[in-house]
Amino acid sequence: MRHGNTSPDPPVDAASLRRQRDHWDQTFAAHPDMYGTEPSAPARAAAPLFRAEGVATILELGAGQGCDALFFARQGFRVQALDFAADATAAIAAKAAAARLATALTALPHDVRELLPVDAGAFDACYAHMLLCMALTTAEIERLVGEVRRALRPGGLFVYTARTTDDAHYGAGIAR
Ligand SMILES: C[S@@+](CC[C@H](N)C(=O)[O-])C[C@H]1O[C@@H](n2cnc3c(N)ncnc32)[C@H](O)[C@@H]1O
């Protein structure tokens, strides 16, 4: 995300992007359940909102190891989880099967810089916890948000979190 810097995004080269994906693959391999097994606070806050808004289907972007996706599935929502770390999405699918939630929760590897592999208007809600502040240029974020709009039915909800200027890591990395 851009913060206080109005210059154009620096180009992101293919090698850096591959390193990002490798980073997440290796991090998740080294730390199964690195974010714990409990749902995040944003997921717990989103579930009653989704229910109040009549949400049945959720598209989760950057689902990581699936704590929130499993939580939503256990809450009765139908969830499609996407993440570019293929081992992580395989782990989510295995956890869903073990919990007898394979019908409610499916997980696929996908890089959100590509067009979303979903039909227009297919989802009631989209959820992305700490994805929009990953290594994405402003143009990629704008295109992704347009894709989220395409994936949502009219009036659908997009719940997302990202780092803020209050975050301990604010200012670290490349400003976009
Ligand atoms: C900070 S983690 C958050 C994971 C999960 N939402 C959670 O809260 O436990 C960011 C996630 O975004 C994924 N990610 C980063 N860039 C991505 C991209 N371009 N396409 C898809 N997933 C991406 C990473 O693999 C990682 O799982």
Structural features:
5 helices, disordered N terminus, binds S-adenosylmethionine, five-stranded parallel β-sheet, 36% helix, globular, 176 residues
Structure description:
The chain is of the alpha/beta class and 176 residues long. 36% of the residues lie in helices and 19% in strands. It is built from five helices and five strands. The radius of gyration is 16 Å and the shape is globular. S-adenosylmethionine binds next to loops. S-adenosylmethionine (SAM) binds next to loops.
Which stretches of 5+ consecutive residues score pLDDT under 50?
A: 1-7
Average of the residue pLDDT scores:
89
- Order of neighbouring strands in the sheet with most strands: 3-2-1-4-5
How do the SSEs run, as a string of H and E?
Answer: HHEHEHEEHE
Helix-strand makeup class: alpha/beta
Number of discrete helical segments: 5
Distance between the termini: 5 Å
Beta-strand percentage range: 15-25%
Name the ligand types. S-adenosylmethionine
- Count of distinct strands: 5
Q: How much helicity do the residues have?
A: 25-40%
Q: Tell me the major beta sheet.
A: 5 strands, parallel
Q: Compute the CA-based radius of gyration.
A: 16 Å
Q: What sort of overall outline do the alpha carbons produce when their principal axes are compared?
A: globular
Multimer state? single chain
